[in-house]
Amino acid sequence: MEDLLKVAEEAFATGKEFPKFKAGDTITVAYKIVEGNKERVQLYRGVVIKITGHQNKKRFTVRKMSGTVGVERIFPIDSPAIESIVVNKVGKVRRAKLYYLRKLTGKKARIKEKRVAIAKEA
């Protein structure tokens, strides 16, 4: 019975492991783009607006400013095109869905960074 459980766990554990993040965090998503017969990795850095779905079917929306235009992109967590996700800043927000950022521009659209305590070594 235990062997059967191990085989089942290995079959489902083929996905990549990504760091935990939530709405308000600034992340950089490295994803593959195929152009003709060439393949390259593009970085997309922005604020996580929302996370929807459950378990391995989650999707997250990242919003970035491209010049003066806001651009949002939805990434499925289980997408084979995503190579890596890096959390750049941990945001301090009180909501799970940050749709209000769509109306804000400039300095008003900034999110405070959560202060993280660093443990001192003895």
UniProtKB/TrEMBL annotation:
Stored SUPFAM superfamilies: Translation proteins SH3-like domain
- The organism sits in which domain of life? Bacteria
Q: Which organism is it from?
A: Pseudoprevotella muciniphila
What exactly does this protein do? This protein is located at the 30S-50S ribosomal subunit interface and may play a role in the structure and function of the aminoacyl-tRNA binding site.
Spell out the family assignment given in the record's similarity comment.
Belongs to the bacterial ribosomal protein bL19 family.
One Gene Ontology BP term is: translation
This chain belongs to the protein called: Large ribosomal subunit protein bL19
Ranges annotated as spanning the membrane: none
Keyword Lyase assigned: no
Cellular component terms, GO, for this chain's entry? Answer: cytosolic large ribosomal subunit
Pfam families per the record? Ribosomal_L19 (PF01245)
Entry keywords, A to Z:
Ribonucleoprotein, Ribosomal protein
Name the gene. Answer: rplS
Q: Does the keyword Hydrolase apply?
A: no
